[in-house]
Amino acid sequence: MKIVITKPHWQVIALGILAGMRSMSAPAVSSRMLNKRPSRRLNHTPLQTLQSPAAANVLTGIAVGELVGDKLPTAPDRIAPVTLVGRCINGAISGAGIYKAAGGKWYTGAVLGGITAIAATYGSFYLRKAIVKQAHLIDPVVGLIEDTIVLGAGVALVETA
């Protein structure tokens, strides 16, 4: 059975969760979704850029770089204030684009995406720490599992667009 997410609020919540897990995944996925199904509702707005093939490619490249960078010992905790704000912004921008493209108010999508990103940031941070401790795995292994979840969810969202 294939799960299809068609309501924009569910798509925005899913993007917020992705932003909490891997900050650049949400803009990359939302840009791919909007590139696949462009909306005239985004024309003449700053969100129009998300629909372009160039934006989709650049954001995807940055997201792939983040997957690698997350494994480095110098990577900051996702709950550090600067990274938390970035995740919130990425969730908000992604949510605004999807919600506006679907005919809703951009600010509703922005608030929903941003709040979900913050909640998912803390949830995924503490879940990852608990899994590392309980399963006696090294952090990068759990990070790879998390990457797989993010990639799978991202592909599923783009396919349902």
Automatic annotation (TrEMBL):
Name all DUF4126 domain ranges: 12-156
Q: Which InterPro entries match?
A: DUF4126 (IPR025196)
Q: Which domain of life is it from?
A: Bacteria
Biological source species? Mucilaginibacter myungsuensis
This one is known as: DUF4126 family protein
Which Pfam families does the UniProt record give?
DUF4126
